[in-house]
Amino acid sequence: MSVHIANTKSQDVPKRSLKQAIFRGAAQRCPACGEGALYSSYLKVNDICPACGEELFHQRADDAPPYFTMFIVGHVVVALVLMVEDLFAPALWVHALLWTPLVLGMSLWLLPRIKGALIGLQWANRMHGFGGEDEDIFGLDPAAVPDRQSGVG
Questions:
Q1: Which site in 11, 30, 80, 146 is 20 to 30 Å from 102, CA atoms measured?
Q2: DSSP at 29
């Protein structure tokens, strides 16, 4: 099993602003230019930025955005539930009416922003092909990787 990840630090490549890329991604904008839309629909990442032409299909957010979303929403809601229970001790149906819309609303609002921030992080660190080089991860043949443009693979 061979693992080859290009070392871009030894090459003469311009540094990308990590903070700027994360904030642009969280704003659901292209991490490269900050102008083009990151998504074509709710969580569907554009293959190419409509404004600057940056290739965005390299992103591999996978399960991280839902995990971080659940982590944040869970911590906020549990703290609020405990506080409300301690101060007011409402009936269970009141808890259900209060927290169900809050959990759903926060989750749906945070998920695309967290995914965008992670895509910005990947772009700034030149991860997963954002560095302009093909990666040979775990001995995968690049020819065996499906072509995302044509759907063939």
A1: 30
A2: B
